[in-house]
Amino acid sequence: MVMGALVDAGVPFEALRAELAKLGLPGFTLERREVMKGVFRATKVDVHVHDHDHGAGEHKHTHDHPHGRHDHPRRNLESILGLIAASGLDVAVKAKAARIFTRLGEAEARVHGTTIDQVHFHEVGAVDAIVDITGACIGLHLLSVEAVHCSALPVGGGFVTGAHGRIPIPGPGTAELLKGFPVVDTGVRRELLTPTGAAILTTLATSAGTMPAMTVEAVGYGAGDMDLETPNVLRVFLGQGAGSGGRETIMQVETTVDDMQPQLWEVVMERLFEAGALDVYLTPVMMKKSRPGTVLTALCPPDKVTELFEESPTIGVRWTAYQRERLDREMVTLTTAYGAIAFKVSRLAGRVVTATPEFDEVRRIARAKGLPVREVLDLARAEGRRLLSP
Questions:
Q1: pTM over 0.90
Q2: Tens of pLDDT along 313-365?
Q3: For residue 248, how many other CB atoms are within 10 A of its CB?
Q4: DSSP secondary structure letter of residue 122
Q5: Pairing of the two strands 153-154 and 183-184
Q6: What whole-number distance in Å separates Cα of residue 116 and Cα of residue 30?
Q7: Are 20 and 30 in contact (CB under 8 A)?
Q8: CB-based contact 29:157 (threshold 8 Å)
Q9: If DSSP codes are grouped into helix, strand and coil, which group holds residue 131?
Q10: Is 149 helix (H, G, I), strand (E, B) or coil?
Q11: What's the Cα-to-Cα distance from 77 to each of 88, 106, 121, rounded to whole Å?
Q12: Calpha distance 329→353 (Å, rounded)
Protein backbone atom coordinates (compact mmCIF):
# COMPACT_ATOMS: atom_id res chain seq x y z
CA MET A 1 0.00 0.00 0.00
CA VAL A 2 2.90 2.37 0.73
CA MET A 3 4.51 1.69 -2.63
CA GLY A 4 1.14 2.00 -4.37
CA ALA A 5 0.44 5.38 -2.75
CA LEU A 6 3.91 6.69 -3.64
CA VAL A 7 3.62 5.50 -7.24
CA ASP A 8 0.18 7.10 -7.45
CA ALA A 9 1.69 10.35 -6.11
CA GLY A 10 4.36 10.46 -8.79
CA VAL A 11 7.08 7.82 -8.32
CA PRO A 12 7.91 6.41 -11.79
CA PHE A 13 7.05 2.72 -11.55
CA GLU A 14 9.87 1.62 -13.86
CA ALA A 15 12.37 3.61 -11.81
CA LEU A 16 11.09 1.90 -8.65
CA ARG A 17 11.43 -1.52 -10.28
CA ALA A 18 14.93 -0.70 -11.56
CA GLU A 19 16.07 0.38 -8.10
CA LEU A 20 14.62 -2.74 -6.47
CA ALA A 21 16.60 -4.83 -8.96
CA LYS A 22 19.76 -3.46 -7.33
CA LEU A 23 18.98 -5.64 -4.32
CA GLY A 24 19.99 -8.68 -6.34
CA LEU A 25 17.08 -10.52 -4.71
CA PRO A 26 15.72 -13.39 -6.85
CA GLY A 27 12.26 -14.86 -6.72
CA PHE A 28 9.90 -11.91 -7.07
CA THR A 29 8.26 -9.67 -9.64
CA LEU A 30 6.49 -6.35 -9.20
CA GLU A 31 3.15 -5.51 -10.81
CA ARG A 32 1.19 -2.26 -10.94
CA ARG A 33 -2.48 -1.81 -11.81
CA GLU A 34 -5.31 0.61 -11.18
CA VAL A 35 -8.24 -0.61 -9.10
CA MET A 36 -11.38 0.77 -7.50
CA LYS A 37 -11.75 0.61 -3.73
CA GLY A 38 -15.27 1.77 -3.04
CA VAL A 39 -15.52 5.14 -4.81
CA PHE A 40 -11.74 5.63 -4.82
CA ARG A 41 -9.49 4.98 -7.81
CA ALA A 42 -6.19 3.73 -6.42
CA THR A 43 -2.90 2.19 -7.53
CA LYS A 44 -2.29 -1.42 -6.52
CA VAL A 45 1.32 -2.57 -6.40
CA ASP A 46 1.67 -6.34 -5.91
CA VAL A 47 4.80 -8.19 -4.90
CA HIS A 48 4.59 -11.63 -6.52
CA VAL A 49 6.87 -14.08 -4.72
CA HIS A 50 7.76 -17.19 -6.71
CA ASP A 51 7.58 -20.08 -4.27
CA HIS A 52 7.52 -23.75 -5.26
CA ASP A 53 4.89 -24.72 -2.72
CA HIS A 54 2.60 -21.76 -3.16
CA GLY A 55 2.92 -21.26 -6.89
CA ALA A 56 4.39 -18.37 -8.81
CA GLY A 57 2.66 -15.07 -8.41
CA GLU A 58 1.12 -15.59 -4.98
CA HIS A 59 1.58 -12.60 -2.69
CA LYS A 60 2.30 -13.67 0.90
CA HIS A 61 2.33 -11.42 3.93
CA THR A 62 5.43 -11.26 6.14
CA HIS A 63 5.19 -13.48 9.18
CA ASP A 64 8.18 -14.22 11.39
CA HIS A 65 8.58 -17.32 13.52
CA PRO A 66 11.22 -17.27 16.24
CA HIS A 67 10.34 -20.75 17.48
CA GLY A 68 9.19 -24.08 16.14
CA ARG A 69 9.55 -26.07 12.95
CA HIS A 70 9.01 -24.58 9.49
CA ASP A 71 8.12 -25.96 6.11
CA HIS A 72 10.04 -23.30 4.14
CA PRO A 73 13.58 -21.86 4.15
CA ARG A 74 14.05 -18.98 6.56
CA ARG A 75 16.09 -15.79 6.68
CA ASN A 76 17.38 -14.20 9.84
CA LEU A 77 17.81 -10.47 10.35
CA GLU A 78 21.57 -10.57 9.84
CA SER A 79 21.22 -12.06 6.37
CA ILE A 80 18.58 -9.51 5.41
CA LEU A 81 20.71 -6.58 6.62
CA GLY A 82 23.67 -8.07 4.75
CA LEU A 83 21.63 -8.24 1.55
CA ILE A 84 20.60 -4.60 1.89
CA ALA A 85 24.15 -3.46 2.74
CA ALA A 86 25.65 -5.29 -0.26
CA SER A 87 23.09 -3.87 -2.72
CA GLY A 88 23.74 -1.07 -5.18
CA LEU A 89 21.09 1.17 -3.62
CA ASP A 90 21.72 4.73 -2.46
CA VAL A 91 23.37 4.95 0.96
CA ALA A 92 20.41 6.84 2.46
CA VAL A 93 17.95 4.21 1.18
CA LYS A 94 20.02 1.38 2.64
CA ALA A 95 20.28 3.13 6.01
CA LYS A 96 16.51 3.70 6.24
CA ALA A 97 15.67 0.14 5.20
CA ALA A 98 18.14 -1.29 7.72
CA ARG A 99 16.64 0.83 10.52
CA ILE A 100 13.13 -0.35 9.69
CA PHE A 101 14.10 -4.02 9.58
CA THR A 102 16.05 -3.71 12.82
CA ARG A 103 13.06 -2.20 14.62
CA LEU A 104 10.83 -4.93 13.21
CA GLY A 105 13.23 -7.60 14.45
CA GLU A 106 13.56 -5.98 17.89
CA ALA A 107 9.79 -5.79 18.29
CA GLU A 108 9.27 -9.43 17.37
CA ALA A 109 12.13 -10.55 19.63
CA ARG A 110 10.63 -8.71 22.58
CA VAL A 111 7.10 -10.05 22.22
CA HIS A 112 8.28 -13.63 21.65
CA GLY A 113 10.75 -13.56 24.54
CA THR A 114 13.80 -14.28 22.41
CA THR A 115 16.78 -12.41 20.98
CA ILE A 116 16.95 -10.48 17.75
CA ASP A 117 19.44 -13.04 16.37
CA GLN A 118 16.84 -15.81 16.79
CA VAL A 119 14.04 -14.01 14.95
CA HIS A 120 13.57 -15.59 11.53
CA PHE A 121 11.34 -14.78 8.58
CA HIS A 122 9.80 -17.40 6.31
CA GLU A 123 11.51 -17.11 2.93
CA VAL A 124 8.27 -16.06 1.20
CA GLY A 125 7.46 -13.49 3.88
CA ALA A 126 11.07 -12.29 4.02
CA VAL A 127 11.17 -11.54 0.29
CA ASP A 128 7.81 -9.78 0.56
CA ALA A 129 8.97 -7.68 3.53
CA ILE A 130 12.34 -6.83 1.95
CA VAL A 131 10.62 -5.54 -1.18
CA ASP A 132 7.90 -3.68 0.77
CA ILE A 133 10.33 -1.98 3.14
CA THR A 134 13.07 -1.21 0.63
CA GLY A 135 10.52 -0.14 -1.96
CA ALA A 136 8.99 2.36 0.45
CA CYS A 137 12.43 3.87 1.13
CA ILE A 138 13.22 3.97 -2.60
CA GLY A 139 9.91 5.70 -3.38
CA LEU A 140 10.52 8.41 -0.79
CA HIS A 141 14.05 8.88 -2.12
CA LEU A 142 12.86 9.18 -5.73
CA LEU A 143 10.39 11.87 -4.63
CA SER A 144 13.16 13.70 -2.69
CA VAL A 145 11.03 13.54 0.48
CA GLU A 146 12.87 15.15 3.41
CA ALA A 147 10.35 14.41 6.19
CA VAL A 148 7.50 11.97 6.72
CA HIS A 149 4.48 12.73 8.92
CA CYS A 150 1.63 10.34 9.58
CA SER A 151 -1.84 10.52 11.05
CA ALA A 152 -2.96 8.56 14.08
CA LEU A 153 -2.62 4.93 12.99
CA PRO A 154 -5.79 2.81 12.57
CA VAL A 155 -5.11 -0.55 14.20
CA GLY A 156 -8.29 -2.50 13.44
CA GLY A 157 -9.69 -5.12 15.79
CA GLY A 158 -10.89 -8.67 16.25
CA PHE A 159 -8.74 -11.80 16.10
CA VAL A 160 -6.59 -13.61 13.56
CA THR A 161 -5.40 -17.21 13.53
CA GLY A 162 -1.73 -17.74 12.67
CA ALA A 163 1.25 -19.97 13.46
CA HIS A 164 1.07 -18.85 17.10
CA GLY A 165 -2.63 -19.63 17.45
CA ARG A 166 -5.50 -17.17 17.83
CA ILE A 167 -4.16 -13.72 18.62
CA PRO A 168 -5.83 -10.32 19.01
CA ILE A 169 -5.53 -7.49 16.49
CA PRO A 170 -3.28 -5.57 16.46
CA GLY A 171 -0.80 -8.43 16.74
CA PRO A 172 1.86 -8.32 19.43
CA GLY A 173 4.64 -7.25 17.05
CA THR A 174 2.53 -4.40 15.69
CA ALA A 175 1.52 -3.32 19.19
CA GLU A 176 5.16 -3.20 20.27
CA LEU A 177 6.05 -0.96 17.32
CA LEU A 178 3.22 1.44 18.14
CA LYS A 179 4.77 2.59 21.42
CA GLY A 180 4.92 6.38 21.44
CA PHE A 181 2.54 6.81 18.50
CA PRO A 182 -1.13 7.86 18.52
CA VAL A 183 -3.61 5.20 17.37
CA VAL A 184 -7.30 5.21 16.49
CA ASP A 185 -10.02 2.55 16.43
CA THR A 186 -12.15 3.09 13.32
CA GLY A 187 -14.53 0.27 14.21
CA VAL A 188 -13.28 -2.09 11.49
CA ARG A 189 -12.80 -5.63 12.87
CA ARG A 190 -9.95 -6.59 10.55
CA GLU A 191 -6.17 -6.20 10.58
CA LEU A 192 -5.57 -2.68 9.26
CA LEU A 193 -1.91 -2.40 10.21
CA THR A 194 0.63 -5.19 9.71
CA PRO A 195 3.99 -5.41 11.51
CA THR A 196 5.74 -4.44 8.29
CA GLY A 197 3.50 -1.41 7.75
CA ALA A 198 3.87 -0.36 11.38
CA ALA A 199 7.65 -0.69 11.16
CA ILE A 200 7.80 1.49 8.03
CA LEU A 201 5.57 4.26 9.38
CA THR A 202 6.81 4.41 12.97
CA THR A 203 10.46 4.37 11.91
CA LEU A 204 10.24 6.98 9.17
CA ALA A 205 7.68 9.38 10.68
CA THR A 206 9.07 12.63 12.06
CA SER A 207 5.73 13.31 13.73
CA ALA A 208 2.35 11.66 14.10
CA GLY A 209 -1.12 13.05 14.71
CA THR A 210 -2.22 16.29 13.09
CA MET A 211 -1.27 17.11 9.52
CA PRO A 212 1.63 19.61 9.34
CA ALA A 213 1.29 22.93 7.54
CA MET A 214 2.18 22.32 3.90
CA THR A 215 1.39 23.25 0.31
CA VAL A 216 -0.02 20.07 -1.27
CA GLU A 217 1.45 19.25 -4.68
CA ALA A 218 0.16 15.69 -5.22
CA VAL A 219 -2.14 13.15 -3.60
CA GLY A 220 -1.67 9.41 -4.02
CA TYR A 221 -3.88 6.43 -3.16
CA GLY A 222 -2.41 2.99 -2.54
CA ALA A 223 -4.84 0.06 -2.53
CA GLY A 224 -4.81 -2.86 -0.10
CA ASP A 225 -5.89 -6.44 -0.75
CA MET A 226 -9.05 -6.58 1.38
CA ASP A 227 -12.43 -5.14 0.51
CA LEU A 228 -13.77 -3.42 3.64
CA GLU A 229 -16.86 -1.47 4.56
CA THR A 230 -14.71 1.64 4.11
CA PRO A 231 -12.34 2.12 1.14
CA ASN A 232 -9.17 0.14 1.87
CA VAL A 233 -6.65 2.72 0.73
CA LEU A 234 -3.61 4.50 2.08
CA ARG A 235 -3.57 8.18 1.14
CA VAL A 236 -0.37 10.20 0.91
CA PHE A 237 -0.08 13.97 0.56
CA LEU A 238 3.10 15.22 -1.09
CA GLY A 239 4.06 18.86 -0.80
CA GLN A 240 6.28 21.63 0.44
CA GLY A 241 6.42 22.32 4.17
CA ALA A 242 5.36 25.78 5.31
CA GLY A 243 8.65 26.71 6.97
CA SER A 244 10.72 24.70 9.39
CA GLY A 245 8.45 25.21 12.38
CA GLY A 246 5.26 23.44 13.35
CA ARG A 247 4.03 20.74 15.67
CA GLU A 248 5.88 17.45 15.87
CA THR A 249 6.36 14.40 18.05
CA ILE A 250 9.67 13.98 19.83
CA MET A 251 10.85 11.30 22.22
CA GLN A 252 12.42 11.95 25.61
CA VAL A 253 14.84 9.09 26.30
CA GLU A 254 16.21 8.68 29.82
CA THR A 255 18.42 6.40 31.86
CA THR A 256 19.85 6.64 35.37
CA VAL A 257 23.54 5.82 35.89
CA ASP A 258 25.53 5.50 39.11
CA ASP A 259 28.69 3.65 38.07
CA MET A 260 30.39 5.72 35.38
CA GLN A 261 33.47 7.90 35.60
CA PRO A 262 32.52 11.59 35.23
CA GLN A 263 35.15 12.15 32.53
CA LEU A 264 33.22 9.83 30.19
CA TRP A 265 30.05 11.93 30.13
CA GLU A 266 31.51 14.32 27.54
CA VAL A 267 32.17 11.42 25.16
CA VAL A 268 28.67 9.96 25.73
CA MET A 269 27.01 13.31 25.02
CA GLU A 270 29.05 13.81 21.85
CA ARG A 271 28.10 10.35 20.57
CA LEU A 272 24.42 10.93 21.33
CA PHE A 273 24.44 14.17 19.33
CA GLU A 274 26.19 12.34 16.47
CA ALA A 275 23.48 9.64 16.63
CA GLY A 276 20.74 12.24 16.06
CA ALA A 277 19.82 13.65 19.48
CA LEU A 278 18.22 17.09 19.40
CA ASP A 279 19.39 17.88 22.93
CA VAL A 280 21.21 16.06 25.73
CA TYR A 281 21.46 17.03 29.39
CA LEU A 282 22.47 15.56 32.76
CA THR A 283 20.63 15.82 36.09
CA PRO A 284 22.20 14.84 39.43
CA VAL A 285 19.93 12.65 41.58
CA MET A 286 20.08 10.73 44.85
CA MET A 287 19.38 7.03 44.33
CA LYS A 288 18.57 4.15 46.66
CA LYS A 289 20.88 3.64 49.63
CA SER A 290 21.74 7.36 49.32
CA ARG A 291 23.99 6.74 46.32
CA PRO A 292 24.58 9.76 44.07
CA GLY A 293 23.66 9.16 40.45
CA THR A 294 23.02 10.95 37.16
CA VAL A 295 19.92 10.99 34.96
CA LEU A 296 20.94 11.14 31.30
CA THR A 297 18.16 12.69 29.18
CA ALA A 298 18.16 12.95 25.40
CA LEU A 299 15.51 14.41 23.11
CA CYS A 300 15.27 12.88 19.66
CA PRO A 301 12.94 12.12 16.72
CA PRO A 302 10.94 8.87 17.12
CA ASP A 303 13.12 6.96 14.65
CA LYS A 304 16.30 7.67 16.63
CA VAL A 305 15.32 5.94 19.91
CA THR A 306 17.08 2.70 18.99
CA GLU A 307 20.26 4.46 17.91
CA LEU A 308 20.36 6.45 21.14
CA PHE A 309 19.85 3.26 23.12
CA GLU A 310 22.97 1.81 21.45
CA GLU A 311 25.01 4.87 22.48
CA SER A 312 23.81 5.01 26.09
CA PRO A 313 26.05 3.72 28.93
CA THR A 314 23.37 1.44 30.39
CA ILE A 315 21.53 -1.82 29.78
CA GLY A 316 18.08 -0.17 29.69
CA VAL A 317 16.42 3.10 28.80
CA ARG A 318 12.91 4.51 29.15
CA TRP A 319 11.19 6.92 26.81
CA THR A 320 8.10 9.07 26.55
CA ALA A 321 6.53 10.75 23.52
CA TYR A 322 5.93 14.50 23.68
CA GLN A 323 4.31 16.96 21.33
CA ARG A 324 6.23 20.17 20.75
CA GLU A 325 5.54 23.33 18.79
CA ARG A 326 8.41 25.15 17.10
CA LEU A 327 8.65 28.60 15.61
CA ASP A 328 9.80 28.95 12.00
CA ARG A 329 13.54 29.48 12.12
CA GLU A 330 16.40 30.16 9.75
CA MET A 331 20.05 31.18 9.77
CA VAL A 332 20.67 34.70 8.43
CA THR A 333 24.03 36.45 8.03
CA LEU A 334 23.78 40.16 8.83
CA THR A 335 26.34 42.91 8.33
CA THR A 336 26.62 44.65 11.70
CA ALA A 337 28.91 47.28 13.19
CA TYR A 338 31.14 44.39 14.30
CA GLY A 339 31.20 42.77 10.84
CA ALA A 340 29.22 39.90 9.33
CA ILE A 341 27.53 37.76 12.01
CA ALA A 342 25.31 34.71 11.58
CA PHE A 343 21.98 34.99 13.45
CA LYS A 344 19.41 32.32 14.27
CA VAL A 345 16.12 34.08 13.50
CA SER A 346 12.74 32.83 14.75
CA ARG A 347 9.45 34.11 13.40
CA LEU A 348 5.80 33.85 14.44
CA ALA A 349 3.29 34.55 11.66
CA GLY A 350 6.08 36.29 9.74
CA ARG A 351 7.06 38.56 12.65
CA VAL A 352 10.60 38.34 14.06
CA VAL A 353 10.42 37.04 17.63
CA THR A 354 14.08 36.36 18.34
CA ALA A 355 17.35 37.14 16.57
CA THR A 356 20.18 35.39 18.36
CA PRO A 357 23.75 35.80 17.12
CA GLU A 358 25.99 32.75 17.00
CA PHE A 359 27.79 32.72 20.33
CA ASP A 360 31.16 31.63 18.93
CA GLU A 361 31.23 34.68 16.69
CA VAL A 362 30.21 36.95 19.58
CA ARG A 363 33.01 35.51 21.71
CA ARG A 364 35.51 35.99 18.87
CA ILE A 365 34.52 39.64 18.46
CA ALA A 366 34.64 40.30 22.21
CA ARG A 367 38.11 38.80 22.44
CA ALA A 368 39.36 40.77 19.42
CA LYS A 369 38.01 44.07 20.78
CA GLY A 370 38.83 43.44 24.43
CA LEU A 371 35.17 43.79 25.48
CA PRO A 372 33.03 41.72 27.88
CA VAL A 373 31.22 38.95 26.04
CA ARG A 374 27.90 39.89 27.68
CA GLU A 375 28.17 43.48 26.37
CA VAL A 376 28.89 42.37 22.80
CA LEU A 377 26.06 39.81 22.96
CA ASP A 378 23.49 42.41 24.09
CA LEU A 379 24.61 44.91 21.43
CA ALA A 380 24.59 42.28 18.66
CA ARG A 381 21.09 41.12 19.63
CA ALA A 382 19.76 44.68 19.59
CA GLU A 383 21.32 45.41 16.21
CA GLY A 384 20.04 42.12 14.80
CA ARG A 385 16.47 42.93 15.84
CA ARG A 386 16.80 46.42 14.36
CA LEU A 387 18.09 45.17 11.00
CA LEU A 388 15.39 42.48 10.76
CA SER A 389 12.43 44.61 11.86
CA PRO A 390 10.23 45.87 9.00
A1: no
A2: 777 788 888 888 777 777 888 777 777 788 888 877 777 888 888 888 889 88
A3: 21
A4: E
A5: parallel
A6: 29
A7: yes
A8: no
A9: helix
A10: strand
A11: 19, 10, 8
A12: 10
